[in-house]
Amino acid sequence: MRLSRSFLPTLKENPAEAQITSHRLMLRAGMIRQTSAGIYAWLPAGLRVLENIAGIVRDEQDAAGAQEVLMPTMQSAELWKRSGRYDDYGPEMLRIRDRHERDMLFGPTNEEMITDIFGQVVKSYKELPQVLYQIQWKFRDEVRPRFGVMRGREFYMKDGYSFDLDTASAVDTYRRMMLAYLRTFQRLGVRAIPMRADTGPIGGELSHEFLILAPTGESGVFFDSALEDQDWLAENVDINDRASLEKFFTRMTSFYAATDEMHDKKAWAEVPADRQREGRGIEVGHIFNFGRKYTQSMDIAVSGPDGAPLYPEMGSYGIGVSRLVAAIIEASHDENGIIWPESVAPFKAVIINLKNGDAQCDALCDQLYGAAPKALLYDDRAERAGAKFADADLMGHPWQLIVGPRGAKEGKVEVKNRRTGERTEETLEGALALIAKLQG
Ligand code: ATP
Ligand code: MG
């Protein structure tokens, strides 16, 4: 994309309404604009990041055997009356009446809808297990929407739902999802730690929240530092092998990790003092097994081996895709701006032309840009160098390819790594090889 013709409205000043770094940087980097309280429009750079995150989430869900569907945002109140949640959900649910006076709602989550669809399709235990997911907008009328897309009212979520014949199979599915989540966050370039979460009236141990550590996180967290090194925890696990998954899960959950609400002082005291870590975290995912709650209340049964009706066991698995955009920034920035992990960056690299209109600079930049116009941002504006450098750091492109008159004369490009600040001088071939690698 050519910056001179793009819709990337960067701001020099900090917007007054933004209280936390990620919100400030998303506004300043031209990623989003607020349209009303807790509701945002995604501009080109923001949308690219959102879609990149969704793409990785999708990839890992597919690898775990989940199948993608797309359900509507608008739901009928009737569905929610069947599970009994229509009255229980409270003011976070946005309730709407259509022209025929029918009660509708903008979905805050989709357990009821997916259970109903499942029931229309699956009739026999032989068709189990099934794991379905979607990536779709949700609406929750939060009392205090804040911190930009971190706690919005309309937000983008991956929500998955599983149906299993029995508890053993449901546990298997749960473990598979936990591994898929770790792999997802690893690929997103962040470390999210799974922590035991409250299972409410259903009980049991199968609920975990995934939190990214950041000082601005809304939850206090306590965890064993062994969980920081997830490479070894998730190493050599075969996602399709039950015994391998069990070993992984047992190891992962043997280390202490809890949010404020679930903190157990006695268990905490048993963690070796040099491994105790306390801090704050941002919830970016939540996995939950809730047994037969919805299949039973909505009377969705399949026929079992002996012909008798059986209520499948369910689980649900959420990832806050739009919240992740902000959470990644909270975990990866410096005083100059965002530092995007390569996997989610809106552009893999920016080409900075230091002297627009100089024949040699323009020619060299065109050659670089032509190699991958979709993956690159070309700063071809008639701005001074300082402004270009500042915007490049602000927007957080992993690589900067800097072309000035002196280098251009010798066919040389200065390459800067945004994260390390390291600079090297490359030939045109060297720079093109880097671009090819980034596109990989
Ligand atoms: P929270 O405790 O932060 O309110 P939740 O427990 O209500 O979240 P879930 O129902 O578990 O959220 O939803 C799954 C995921 O969706 C969460 O882990 C979070 O990442 C994301 N999410 C939930 N509410 C919001 C929101 N208002 N804005 C952005 N993302 C959200
Ligand atoms: Mg939650």
TrEMBL record:
Subcellular location: Cytoplasm
GO cellular-component term (any): cytosol
Domain of life: Bacteria
Biological process per Gene Ontology, one example term: prolyl-tRNA aminoacylation
SUPFAM superfamilies noted in UniProt: Class II aaRS ABD-related, Class II aaRS and biotin synthetases
Catalytic activity, EC: 6.1.1.15
One Gene Ontology MF term: ATP binding
Start and end residues of each Aminoacyl-transfer RNA synthetases class-II family profile domain: 38-341
Chief location of this protein within or outside the cell: cytoplasm
Gene3D superfamilies in the record: Anticodon-binding domain, Bira Bifunctional Protein, Domain 2
Catalytic activity: tRNA(Pro) + L-proline + ATP = L-prolyl-tRNA(Pro) + AMP + diphosphate
Keywords in alphabetical order: Aminoacyl-tRNA synthetase, ATP-binding, Cytoplasm, Ligase, Nucleotide-binding, Protein biosynthesis
Keyword Ligase included in the entry's annotation: yes
Classification via CDD domains: ProRS_anticodon_short, ProRS_core_prok
Pfam families, A to Z: HGTP_anticodon, tRNA-synt_2b
Subunit structure: Homodimer.
NCBIfam families: PRK12325.1 (NF008979), proS_fam_II (TIGR00409)
Family: Belongs to the class-II aminoacyl-tRNA synthetase family. ProS type 2 subfamily.
Role: Catalyzes the attachment of proline to tRNA(Pro) in a two-step reaction: proline is first activated by ATP to form Pro-AMP and then transferred to the acceptor end of tRNA(Pro).
Protein name (record): Proline--tRNA ligase
